[in-house]
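Intended use. Records like the one below are meant for learning the mapping from a protein sequence to its folded structure. Do not use them to infer anything beyond what is encoded.
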Amino acid sequence: MDALLRHYERRNIVAKAVMWGLLVALVGLSLDYEVSQLRWPWPHERMLKNMIEGVFVALLVWVVLSAREKRLHQRFKELGYFNYHIRNSLAVIEMAEGTLARRTNAGDGQQRQHANSTLHRTNFPGGRLRDQRAISS
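Structure written out for the chain above:
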């Protein structure tokens, strides 16, 4: 059922409308035929057919909407999980920048060199993007 619902969600609005129209027509015609076999008076046949159709369409809509809600809930849960990790990473970067700024302002040449190399490693992992000497000069 999930594969069918994923297939349904990928369709554009026209394809969804056509699919729902065909489904309602198919259910309506098949129920008309089945209820006419009971040989009840016409108003009773219509009432039974409409009740069965209403329950069937409500069940289909419930299945589609509940599956969609479950997928949306899962997506928001994943987004929250990623957001948590992104905030943690940004906090570490801000902390490192603050530490580097304090070391740079300390005035010691060795600490300044260490701060520059740490900043370089933070911004350019592996040192492949820029040469450290080009940044210092």
